[in-house]
Amino acid sequence: xxxxxxxxxxxxxxxxxxxxxxxxxxxxxxxxxxxxxxxxxxxxxxxxxxxxxxxxxxxxxxxxxxxxxxxxxxxxxxxxxxxxxxxxxxxxxxxxxxxxxxxxxxxxxxxxxxxxxx
Length: 118
Known about the structure:
The protein is an alpha+beta fold. It has 2 helices and 5 strands. It has one domain. It has helices at residues 84-88, 100-108; strands at 24-26, 43-45, 50-53, 66-68, 74-76.
């Protein structure tokens, strides 16, 4: 996989959100319920309704699908099959608004917050 430059997609030089939050989603998003869904082998049961991505349930989360070095060069190994929380997460200023959750994840990894110019 060729990784784009920061100008094309800043997320490919970050990955902080994938190593900061628990990624919980409705159980039926997984491929054992929905063909083409999130690979079930990369999930764990949270309760009867939700699952979460392996690696994101502990005190030092890092999604099992994340490849690369936070703040360096990263990518999601299941990008086209990622769960809804990942699909819905927005880069700070990607739509003109600050996303405090993005900035908080970046700060936890020693990365500066995004700016409107990034």
